[in-house]
Amino acid sequence: MLGRMHFTEVAVQNVRGFSPQGRFPLKPGFLAIKPPGNEITPLAALALALLYADGRGGDAAFSAQGQKSGKAALTMLGQDNLTYRLLRELGASGTLHRQTAPGQAPELVGQEAAEITQALRSQVGLPSRSAFEQLYCLMPNQLPSRKPRVRTSKTDVKRPSLPGVGSNPGMHGLASNPSMPALASTQAVAPAEDIPAAEARVKELEQELVKSREMEDLQFKLDGLNSQLFEVERKLKSTEGLKVAIRDAEAAWNAAPTPESVGLPPDILTRVERYPKALARREDALNRLATEREQEAQAAPGAVEPLRQNRQFLAGLAAGVLFLVLGIVLGTVLGSNWRYLTLLDIPAFGWAAMLALHYVDDLSRTTGVGRKEGMFAAREKKILEEFDAEAAPVRKALKVLELESPEDIPAVFERKGLLEQKVNELREQLAAMEANPEFIAATEQRDSVKQQIDELSVEVGRAGSFVRDLREVERELSRTKESIALAKAGHVPVAAAAGAGAGEAAAAGGPMEDPSPVLMTLAADLLSTDIMTMSGLLRDRCTQYLSALTDRRYLGVEWDEGGRASVFVPGQQLLVSEIPPRDLDMYYLALRLTVVEKVSARVKYPFILEHPFAGMDEVKLPLIARMLKHLGTLTQVLLVTPHPGLAQLADGTVNV
Predict the structure, then answer these.
(1) pLDDT of 483-517, one tens digit each?
(2) Which of 173, 302, 397, 491 gets the most CB atoms within 10 Å of its CB?
(3) How far apart are CA 304 and CA 589, in angstroms?
(4) How many C-alpha atoms does 628 have within 13 Å on its Cβ side?
């Protein structure tokens, strides 16, 4: 299952270790949770009680003292990218709601403890309780030094066989040399057998102590400079968000269209302003033309009757012909006086001629109406062509910009100017930030700090590749001096003292418990693999963490098939149960950080730490904080701590 789960809010009412009442938002990354008082806020234990409630009311123990009841709620983003809110009345019932969509009322998922647990496992993606508690909750009582020692006989302690040790050039011979002495802190103090040799050893240890002190001072300065460099770079990186915003704004500004970029005339906005007037002029001209056509149509004559169908015209012609024929015939037959009868054809033909003239006149008027209709058509075409010529760029803009109305065109081109204004404002903000005296000082300080770090790194390299921890040298020096004092006192035989010391040490409690098998098994189950595969996945990174946390006293880590761990020191291989308790805690922390880092590449869960670093060397805390900050880039890291130095390195602080 691939996904990311993190808490987005914790809300409490009358819960010990928190303010009496409040809601506290949580964001991804490395957050420092600051308790309201001296008591450490039990965030990890409360999360376990809420997420894995068995319905027996055991979470009532988290109620604030003097209060009858309390409430606690966790809001989280599940691996299905939905928001869930788990609310419980401490010692009583609880509910689980799911927010399916913003703005909608959350829906109830379950009210029974078993139902809620099943939903958290199947929908939210929560792992098993043992995996979450042992891998993703780090509390002080989980550190190996806080647990009782394993009581076992000397013969029961066996070194695991480590695969590949003999073939590793860097570790060659470490496991096969039983004559190498154990670490000074694990040896019983016995009288010195050779006092001169022991005194010579004291001188060597005193010289080594000087080197170790010098190395510790250098390392302390180097860590301080690294912390200083981190703060300086954090100040300088405060402009990164603004630079990204400027790049995005410039990209949007460059991508915004202009009339030239989309092939439109530069005066397109003026044309858009004139478009409504041009449209109104076209409609007005077409309306006037239609009115003139209507008036002309009403004044135009009807259809002209042909002459051959005009009875009066035909009658006039017939009468004229008749009078002409009768005059000629009767004048010939009856005498010349009847010839005057032909004169009557003059009015008859005149009447016909008059009707013919009227026909010609009507016909000419009909031809004029046709010519006017042609003029009307030509005017209409000219009106439309003039409008099309003026409106063509506007129509092209609508098509290119994929708009429906010309009113939307100015907003598209005005966006270019607005984006330019935004870019200029962001650039002014950046210039103001970079001109800030603190920013300028940080820029100058960064180069100086880097130079100092380089110089110190050269000094550290010149001091030697391996220098033991100052406290380890001091312990061995003290024990050596004590052995010389015992030998000079001469009260106890050397062999007897050694035997008694070993017996008392064995009776005192035996070796520490190796926490590795449980962690390796849970991590392997979480990634659905085996322990040996997990060993190969974790080895290099765990070695880096352990070496950094122990000032490079340990050179490697190995696990056997059962998950039991051994570490390498110069010239020797040791079970982790045999190393000093303080170093075992560092190994445990290194393994936990490595497991969370590697598993987070597949599935992400919140990593909750209830200030397990109490009592640790202050010089280690900045290094641990940087490790947690790196881990915060992979998953959510919630560190409950009142320590101001750890809170300064966090991505954010939440006061609960």
Answers:
(1) 888 787 764 433 333 333 333 333 344 567 889 99
(2) 397
(3) 116
(4) 33
